Amino acid sequence: GEGAPLAPIYHAALASVLPKPVAILNIGGVSNVTWVGQADGSEIGGALLAFDTGPGNAMIDDWVLAETGRAMDENGALAASGRVDEAAVAEMLAAPYFDRKPPKSLDRNAFSATPVKNMTLVDGAATLTAFTAAAVALAATHFPQAPSRWLVCGGGRKNQTLMSMLAQRLGKPVEPVEVVGWDGDSLEAQAFGYLAVRRLIGAPISFPMTTGAPGPLNGGQLDRWE
Length: 226
Description:
Elements lengths: L7 H7 L7 E6 L2 E7 L11 E8 L2 H11 L8 H4 L5 H8 L27 H19 L10 E4 L6 H11 L3 E3 L10 H14 L26
Parallel strand pairs: 1-4, 4-5
Antiparallel strand pairs: 1-2, 2-3
C-alpha cells in the first residue's frame, strides 16, 4: 500500500475507552488523521480509517523561515494578525490530491505556496494556516460518520490560531490529546514501540483502510540472532 500512516492502530488502542466515533489528528510537517468508529466485534473490522489530510506545519514554517529567518509562527501569532485570502485557499485546495479517496499519503513538499507569494508576512501566514485547517475539514467528508470530537497531537496543537481555525471549519470540539491524558509530544514514539511489540507477537500493524495494504500485514520479515 502507501506505507503510511502507521500510527493508526495505536491511536485505536488508546481510543478504545473513548466514545466513538472519534478523530485523532496528528499535525506534523504533514497532517494525518485516524478515524475510529465503534468496533464490530473484531479488532479492526470497519472501525478504522486513516490517511494524510494535506499540509500540516511545513508550509507555514517554510513561509515564516523564508520571510523572517525564524523557524515557525510561534503560537500562530503572525497568522492571528493577518487576513485569510479565501480565494488563495480555494486555489490550493484544487490540487489533485484532494480528489483522491483514502487511504492516501503525501510528502511535505506536495503543495505549492505560489498563491501566497505576493502576500504580506502575516497574510501569508494566515492563509497557509487556513489552508491546513480547510484541508482537514475537507478530509472529514470521507469519514463514514462524523466524529463527536477531534483530538490533536503533534506540534500543530501548540498553534492556537490553527486550533481555532480547525474548530471553526470543523464545527466540532478540537482539543489537544492531553485532555484525555495522552502525551502529544511522545505519541509517535510510543506508537512505534507499540508497533514493534505487535510485530514480535505476530499481530498486524498495517491495514487496507490505513495504508491501502492488500490485507492486514504484520510489518515484514523479522530476523532473529543470538
